Amino acid sequence: MRKLFLTLLVSVYLIGFSTAQSDSYAMMQKLSPEQRGEAVKFGKRSVKTEVRELIKEWSVDNGKNGFAFIITEYLALAFAARQAALQSSELNNFDIEDTLAKSSGKLVFQVSLLGNTDSFSKDHTAVLRIGDKTFPSTYWNNPPGEASDDGKTFEATSDYYFPSEGIDPNSVVLLVVQDKDGKEIAKFSFNLSKMR
Q1: 3-state SS class at 100
Q2: On the chain, which terminus has fewer CB atoms closer than 10 Å, C or N?
Q3: Phi-psi region at 151: left, alpha or beta (left = phi > 0; alpha = psi -120 to 50)
Q4: Can you tell me whether residue 46 is helix, strand or coil?
């Protein structure tokens, strides 16, 4: 999943986008000034951290059955701060407000799956299941997959957008990727209470 870094960068761009780890907190929405500062510090400190390690808190790795992560407002801001630091720059107030405005009200999931052709994921869609409720994605992007070194498998990375309104930030959500006939292709369980 080597294109993860570039894909994350594109995703953050598309949505505009002390932190001591806590064992229990709700996913942060509408960040307070203190939470914004924490996100910026977290991003700046992570300049030398591999992207896969950086997004660990927000990701679910099912091995050969796929990899997925959620881009929250906190992660979008942290990644923007990281990108600025990589360019020996800092986010100004406009950058922070712009990133948060573009990511506000959305839950964006990025999913990487393996298949046999470069177009295997072109008709995939996704739903979020929370208890007995199901929410369809409002937008998705399924670009062609990239061939592996041996040319026998392809990795496709798709983005699925959902409105965050009505979704409890303390809930466990199940992201289900489906084919055009509604057959379940992959599932990823996210405990929103364990991430920022």
Answers
A1: helix
A2: N
A3: left
A4: coil
pLDDT digits (tens, 9 = 90+) for 80-135: 999 999 999 999 999 999 999 988 888 999 999 999 999 999 999 999 999 999 99
Structure tokens at 133: 């409720």
Residue 60: what residue type? V
Q: Give bridge partners of residue 156 from the DSSP assignment.
A: 113
Beta strands in 5-132 (DSSP E): 59-61, 67-71, 106-115, 125-130
Q: Which residue has the tokens 């392809």?
A: 154
| Location of structure tokens 């960068």 | 9
Angle subtended at Cα 18 by Cα 16 and Cα 23, rounded to the nearest 5 degrees = 90
pTM of the predicted protein model: 0.83
